[in-house]
Specification:
The chain contains 15 helices and no strands. By secondary structure, it is an all-alpha fold. The chain has one domain: MFS general substrate transporter like domains (Growth Hormone, Chain: A), CATH 1.20.1250.
């Protein structure tokens, strides 16, 4: 009897491992496609509306806006939608991925129309031109970015059905998504665009999205899962409230780090152009380095979870304050012209953010899609404002070095008095 029980347990464990590999692969491919689109759409926006920093700021901010709106909406609605339609949450995820694939063909067409329509508006640096093109880019990109943001809570709801007491579903998906995003950013700029062009690269990504949608649809049929009972929801809610002793403080940290990191990404792109030579390739190189370092930090966090001990948030904030100042020194072209060293200067801060962000969201949400969507939305809200403030205010008014130093300052303010006592 013990042998039979052991065999059944091993079989169940094997099924869980296979399912985990499938989910990891889906989110790896989803992240790959998302960053392929961001790189391609940024390049198309440059070609259509001008190679200027405000255009890059708008593209990044719209991406973050869509991710935030999609995350919050799907987090709030997925349980209701699933219950009313008696559908598996992974089927909604399948629909979102299919819709993203449609955007691969729609966005280039819209940009082409906008390019011809705005030729008569005058100089690309005029305020009227910047406002109209920013609005047009927003309308063109936002629907597809909303679908990208919805994928996290939709899949988390599915994980909650098959693993009711898994409280770290967000960080599991986050690791897969980030490493896929890093691969997408690197291969798109260095290989895919050179081989297949913008249209071919977008078509390839669309085919991957359609494949993800088909696999997710099949997965929902093979692994239906069960909707969490009211008792399970209540238990998880209590656990979430217990784990998140200061939810407002957590959301403040998430908002601040989202604002600072995405604002710095825009400033780094301007600053590193002197070493990396072009704005287009500077953005791609920074984005790839940013994502690889973020994946490294999130991977270390998942490893620490298995050992039962993670780094405290006050300690991580202290590291962020220190690491944020490295690019201020190393971006100066008078000191060095080494592209590798220049890019390496942002690795420590990005890795720390990669560790801290999923840790905070895991702690806040405890596996609940609605809480994960809300907390991730705060992080993304900061990411929306950061690039706009950097591109339209800090860089024009203060320059690169002052902007970086100023952006490093807010990282010390979310530290509570308890955290300060911890340091002392």
């Amino acid at each position: 009897m013990n042998l039979l029980g052991t065999r059944t347990t091993n079989l169940t464990l094997a099924k869980r491992n296979v399912l985990s590999c499938v989910l990891f692969s889906l989110f790896f491919c989803s992240g790959f496609c998302s960053l392929l689109y961001q790189v391609v759409w940024a390049r198309l926006a440059f070609a259509s509306f001008g190679i200027i920093t405000p255009v890059l700021s708008v593209v990044i901010s719209v991406f973050m806006l869509g991710l935030g709106v999609g995350s919050v909406m799907a987090g709030r609605g997925i349980e209701t939608w699933s219950r009313r339609l008696r559908a598996n949450p992974v089927h909604f995820y399948s629909g979102a991925e299919f819709g993203i694939g449609i955007g691969a063909f729609t966005v280039p067409w819209l940009f082409q129309i906008g390019e011809h329509a705005f030729l008569r508006l005058g100089d690309a640096s005029s305020s009227g031109y910047l406002f109209v093109t920013a609005l047009y880019i927003t309308v063109s990109l936002l629907p597809w970015c909303v679908l990208m943001g919805a994928t996290f809570p939709l899949m988390m709801s599915f994980i909650r059905r098959i693993r009711p007491y898994d409280t770290t579903g967000f960080s599991f998906l986050y690791v897969a998504n980030v490493v896929g995003a890093a691969a997408g950013a690197a291969l798109t700029a260095a290989v895919l665009i050179e081989l297949f062009g913008f249209r071919g690269s977008s078509t390839l990504a669309a085919l991957v999205n359609f494949t993800i949608a088909a696999v997710a649809l099949l997965l929902g049929s093979l692994v239906p899962g069960e909707a969490p009972s009211i008792r399970q929801q209540f238990t998880q809610m209590n656990r979430s409230q217990f784990a998140s002793e200061s939810p407002r403080w957590i959301t403040l940290v998430l908002f601040t780090t989202g604002f600072v990191s995405l604002a710095m990404e825009v400033v780094w792109t301007r600053a590193f152009t002197f070493v990396l030579l072009t704005t287009v390739y500077s953005f791609a190189a920074i984005l790839t380095t940013y994502l690889l370092a973020t994946w490294l930090g999130s991977f270390v966090y998942r490893h620490h979870l298995t050992s039962g001990s993670t780094i405290a948030i006050p300690t991580l904030l202290g590291f962020l304050c220190l690491f944020a100042l490295l690019p201020v020194v190393l971006e100066d072209p008078r000191l060095q012209h080494n592209p590798i060293l220049t890019l390496a200067s942002i690795v420590p801060i990005c890795a720390t953010l990669g560790y801290m962000t999923p840790k905070l969201i895991d702690q806040y949400s405890q596996g609940q899609p609605v809480s994960a969507g809300r907390s991730y939305g705060w992080n993304i809200a900061g990411g929306i404002l950061g690039p706009l403030v950097a591109g339209y205010l800090l860089l024009p008014l203060m320059g690169v070095r002052t902007a970086l130093a100023l952006l490093a300052a807010p990282l010390q303010y979310p530290i509570s008095f308890d955290a300060l006592d911890w340091f002392l």
